[in-house]
Design a protein that fits this description.
Length: 831
């Protein structure tokens, strides 16, 4: 298997085609990338911006250039010596009429040859939650009609531009008669004869008959656990792997599958031993990928969480939380907030999934002759789901592995005083398969659906609710982060890297993706708030006073409320371009065009005073007007103050940015560069983070691979310095792949005046030695005077070359940092 030395994630669509990607390959070669890492390329819904809404898994999307365009890209990659990793989506497809399989299921219902391809509850009619209002109201508004289907000419139920095919039994032999129907009652009767029913989109939460991806009703779960479905949905994928055009696969949302281990084993067997496979998997603190999974590792969200330990000032983080409480005048009980978010998900957003689980459990109780009322089981199941600490367990048809049993026991211990002990014990028995033979099928179904629900519950309650409610320090509100307050330490980072080397040395190490809450450089900047909580709080207090006239008084409270004001200033500080001046009106308008959609999304994801489903337009408008005022040319006093006040954080953030970059490129794992983040990435949450970077600028900055010049402020602020550092170190990785894949990870500790202002470690194999020193906590511009790093014997008494400056050093028992600029990382390779 060829393990990448570094990947470059490219978002296809939105103008990025295969032919455009070909033009970027010389640039990626200069950068030092070994593999292009492509977003989904298979045919998706019309105007898809991301490709995860696949309509045909066996066709390369014509929008991108089709098979011919892909073949051109493949040939160009091979000529350039670059590999290709494809992002594949086995968990779901688009629940769209453009999807031929789905359309056939609508037309033929349970008799469709694809009826078992999708995870549908066929005990009732297939629900299609795509109406703007209830069916009866839509009918009364004459928004439904019988029309010939545009492709087939057969009778279809038309709703605006959607044509739902009628099942043949309801019209065959009388097509003209059916097409002539215009009476509301007759339309309703015809609708009643279908194997499907149109319902209000708002009812999907409680009344959906198919498994969806998270809360997205437009994405229907696929049953790839069935071998026939696997084969049908992976034909083209495997063809591309076997042809040599694709050397690796990234499996999207592996936790959504009924049997992740079984799927991955089947994929490995089908793809072959040489295919590099990673999975999108969120690991909780101390959680590891199951050893039985035949993969190289995850896509790297846990690496972001580890980096926060290297760059956050734990000695002052509590003061930042206290400052947040002082501004909001509320106690910031994160634990209570997490429970409230989980309760909301169980009781409302995933009410349908919960009801189905409860019905299965109640049925098993009846079969097992257990005297449980539905209410008793309801409480027990609810408490278990709320308390679940990780994305899921990995029970299979044969039962639950020991790790899963231990986790369930931990959950039961947590909730033992919150629900009936006998009901909890019974649910445990179902999950472990400790039931009678007649109950085994239902118990297996319960276990599968329970495990497919805990992941979405975790993601939506933490990443898409709590992280938009708790604003103390936005940098740690990131995918894969631990939601509850916890200590941060360099020692913990070192432990995480040693664990990473042991468990998944070939996993991706990422810092930005299409799903992260903010760009890596915005996060790096906001880490520095932990170094000066009092200063930040003073700034926020002053800014609130400057903009107080734009706060509206409403019945439910001020708009925006203090917590949202705190969030707005912090988000704006993170996204502020390094060179944007307060009098640059065009630049302010450009930033506003990105910032306002973020604010709207943040308010709705918080689900406090507005929501996606139940929006409060008046409240939203008030907050959006406030946010617009922050960037208005008519607010010069604030803008001048804001830009001046954030400069120390901007400068410290640039140092943090270089540190996290150097660490990503030299620590265990395969560094993944998200498109454009090789320069500076101050993106906000999607869709802002999916904007195409300015490749003309990026290419111009890297015309030649000159050494980084740390003395040029313009290079720092343009991202050129970061880009040059990346190119330098990626080429080192190409030259010495074994060092970075198998080399030991040895923490190094400084002594003297300023040991807390650096993080250091070594990588060693039998032939090479590398020493890495990265600055941290540099908001005050601290020096490294009178600071040194004692070296173990294996590193001492050797000559080293600084990869970033070209200078040579002769080291004895220690590396002295005297007279070295503390803002410039050191990467020393033994000569």
């Amino acid at each position: 298997m060829m393990i990448p030395s570094a990947t470059y994630r490219l978002q296809f669509r939105n103008g990025m085609t295969f032919d455009r990607a070909i033009t970027l390959l010389p640039y990626l070669q200069r950068l030092g990338i070994s593999h292009l890492y492509a977003s989904p390329i298979f045919t998706a819904t019309t105007d898809s911006t991301h490709g995860y809404d696949v309509t045909d898994a066996n066709e390369i999307d014509p929008v991108l250039g089709g098979r011919d365009g892909f073949n051109r890209l493949s040939a160009a990659l091979q000529q350039a010596g670059l590999g290709l990793i494809l992002d594949i989506v086995p968990n779901h497809m688009a629940a769209s009429l453009e999807n031929a399989w789905w359309r056939d299921v609508i037309e033929h219902g349970e008799n469709s040859q694809y009826a078992r391809y999708f995870d549908i509850d066929w005990s009732r009619r297939l629900t299609l939650p795509f109406l703007g209002e209830d069916f009866e109201r839509v009918l009364q508004n004459d928004e439904l009609s019988i029309q010939p289907h545009p492709q087939t000419g057969h009778p279809a139920l038309a709703y605006y531009d959607s044509f739902y095919p009628l099942t043949p039994a309801s019209w065959q032999g009388r097509a003209d008669e059916v097409l002539a129907i215009n009476d509301r009652a007759a339309i309703a009767e015809l609708h009643q004869q279908q194997p499907w029913q149109l319902i209000n989109w708002r009812d999907a939460r409680k009344d959906l008959s198919y498994r969806r991806f998270f809360e997205i009703t437009g994405l229907v779960g696929v049953r790839v656990e069935d071998e026939a479905v696997f084969n049908a949905s992976h034909g083209l994928i495997l063809e591309l792997v076997h042809s040599g055009a694709v050397s690796g696969l990234r499996v999207d949302h592996v936790d959504g599958l009924a049997d992740p281990q079984g799927y991955l084993q089947r994929l490995r067997q089908a793809a072959g031993a040489d295919c590099y496979i990673t999975v999108e998997k969120i690991l909780a603190e101390e959680e590891q990928i199951p050893a039985e999974w035949p993969i190289s590792g995850t896509t790297g969200y846990e690496f972001i969480a580890a980096l926060s330990h290297a760059l956050i000032d734990d000695s002052q983080i509590d003061a930042l939380h206290l400052a947040y409480e002082a501004v909001t005048e509320e106690r910031n009980d994160v634990s209570a907030g997490l429970r409230a978010a989980r309760e909301l998900m169980v009781d409302r957003n995933f009410a349908g999934e919960f009801s189905r689980l409860l019905a299965i459990a109640t049925g098993v109780a009846h079969l097992e002759q257990r005297n449980f009322g539905e209410a008793e089981l309801h409480v027990a199941l609810r408490e278990m789901l709320i308390a679940f600490p990780v994305y899921r367990t990995y029970g299979r048809p044969a039962g639950m592995p020991l790790a899963g049993e231990a986790l369930l026991q931990q959950v039961l211990e947590t909730v033992k005083f919150s629900a009936s002990p006998s009901a909890l014990s019974f649910l445990q028995a179902i999950l472990l398969g400790a039931v009678s033979e007649q109950s085994e099928p239902d118990a297996a179904d319960f276990r599968t659906r329970f495990q497919q629900l805990t992941g979405p519950l975790m993601a939506k309650s933490v990443e898409d609710t709590l992280f938009f409610r708790n604003h103390a320090i936005l940098a740690i509100n990131e995918v894969g982060a631990e939601p509850l307050p916890h200590p941060f330490s360099v020692e913990h980072f070192h432990q995480q890297m040693q664990t990473r080397l042991h468990h998944q040395p070939d996993a991706l190490s990422t810092t930005s993706t299409h799903d992260t809450k903010r760009g890596e450089d915005a996060r790096a900047r906001l880490y520095s708030l932990s170094e000066a909580p009092a200063l930040w709080a003073e700034n926020v207090t002053r800014w609130r006073e400057l903009n107080q006239s734009k706060v509206l008084t409403m019945n439910e409270g001020p708009a925006p409320e203090p917590a949202v004001e705190w969030m707005l200033y912090q988000a704006l500080a993170g996204a502020w371009p390094t060179t944007l001046r307060p009098d640059d009106h065009d630049g302010l308008r450009t930033l506003e065009a990105r910032f306002i959609p973020f604010v709207e999304k943040a308010l709705r994801e918080a689900k406090l005073r507005t929501d996606w489903a139940d929006g409060d337009e008046t409240y939203e408008q008030a907050v959006l007007e406030y946010a617009k005022h922050l960037l208005s040319a008519e607010n010069p006093a604030f803008l001048t103050d804001f830009v001046t006040a954030i400069q120390p954080f901007v400068d410290a953030g640039l140092v943090n940015s270089l540190s996290q970059t150097v660490i990503k490129l030299t620590a265990p794992g395969v560094p993944d560069i998200y498109q454009g983040s090789e320069a500076l990435d101050f993106s906000l949450v999607d869709p802002d983070n999916r904007r195409e970077p300015d490749y003309a600028v990026l290419e111009a900055q890297l015309v030649d691979r000159s050494r980084p010049d740390f003395t040029q402020p313009s290079d720092w602020r343009s991202g050129k310095l970061k880009q040059q550092v990346i190119a330098c170190l990626l080429h080192l990785r190409l030259d010495k792949p074994q060092l970075f894949r198998f080399g030991d990870y040895q923490p190094l500790y400084a002594t003297g005046a300023h040991p807390e202002h650096l993080i250091a470690y070594a990588r060693q194999d039998s032939e090479n030695s590398l020493i890495v020193v990265a600055p941290r906590l540099m908001l005050e511009g601290t020096s490294w005077a009178e600071t040194s790093i004692p070296l173990p014997e294996s590193l001492a008494h050797r000559h080293y070359r600084n990869l970033l400056s070209g200078a040579t050093l002769a080291l004895n028992e220690q590396l002295s940092l005297d007279n070295l600029p503390p803002y410039a990382p050191l990467v020393l390779i033994a000569t």
